[in-house]
Every structure is written in C-alpha cells, then in structure tokens.
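seq as requested:
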Amino acid sequence: MGEDLIRTKLANWERYIHEAENIDPLIRLAVMHYQFEAIHPFVDGNGRTGRVLNLLFLVDKDLLDITILFLSRYIIRNKALYYRHLLAVTTEKDWETWILFMLEAVRTTAEWTTAKIQAIRELLDETASAIRRKLPKTYSRELVELIFVNPYCRVNDVVKAGICQRQTAAVYLNTLADGAFLEKVKAGRENLYINPPLLALLSDHI
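struct tokens:
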C-alpha cells in the first residue's frame, strides 16, 4: 500500500471519527478500530497504537475522564477471537459480530476496572487504619495517600507533596519500612520505598 493511499484512507478514517455524530460512540469505536487495523499504517505497533487511540476517543467523547480502561487485557485474553472477527469483517462484511465483540470488551473491561479501583481504595483505607493504629506519630492521611499514588515513592516525593522536609520525610518512610508497610530498596544513590500490596494488586492484570 503506497503512502498516498495510506494517507487517503487515514483521512477518511479521521473524518468518520469526527463527523459520524449520528452513530453511538461505542459503535464508532468498534468501527474506527477495525478501520485503523485494516489500514495498518505502521510497520509495527499498529495493535498497541489502535488500542491507545480507542482510549483517547472515549476521553474525547466524555465517556472516560482519564485513560484507565485497559482494553488490551480483554483483547489479549481473547486474541484468537479478536483476529477471527477482524478477518470476518474483511472477508464476509460481518460487522455485527465484530461490533458485539468490541462492546463486550468495553463492558467487561469497565467492570474489571471498577472492581480494581474499589480494591485499591479498600487497601488504602485498610493501610491507613493499620498505620494510624501501629505508628500514630508517623501517620497522616496525606502520607498514606502519597504511597498509593504509585507503587513506590522517594523521599523527594514526600517533600514535593508538601508533607514535610527532607530529613523528616526520610524518617517517615524508613519507619513505614521498618513497620513492614513499605519495602526499602536501594536504587543507585537513592532509596525507593515500594508498596508491595499495591504493586501486587496492580500487577494482577491478566
């Protein structure tokens, strides 16, 4: 497929995304994903790029606030069906089965994501209660929430969050590590303070 043809097809794809406002956005999502994969504009990475574009489209249509819908999970778990339905659109014009597959991907992933967010919130609250009970001099809600922003944090993260100065931040994080709430790991010249339960929860994605 020559460059001019690819550009023409991508222009058509873009117009469909922005102009087909009479079609439900989730159906448009399924159609635009097929179109992008069929055009296959890159030598590699078309699948990953297409899935990122799905999320950006949902954000643009106000169906997501942030790009947290991990559609790749469903597609990877159902890879054979995914490719079978993609091919069926090309060879048999079987749009209905493909669209239903993608709608199921969105539904299933949304339910899974909601459950994951709820589990993180519950873990945060449980951790906050345990720290407040066992380490009352170290506890603050702001500090607990900070160690849940990412699965690890640094002393600088505590300082930048305005919780305390550097020396006190190091004391707080070391105290949490001594209390088995965090795991202290040396990384070059600095220490990383890993939140193992949060990391395990985030890693459980397949």
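The domain at 135-203 is CATH 1.10.10.10 (Arc Repressor Mutant, subunit A).
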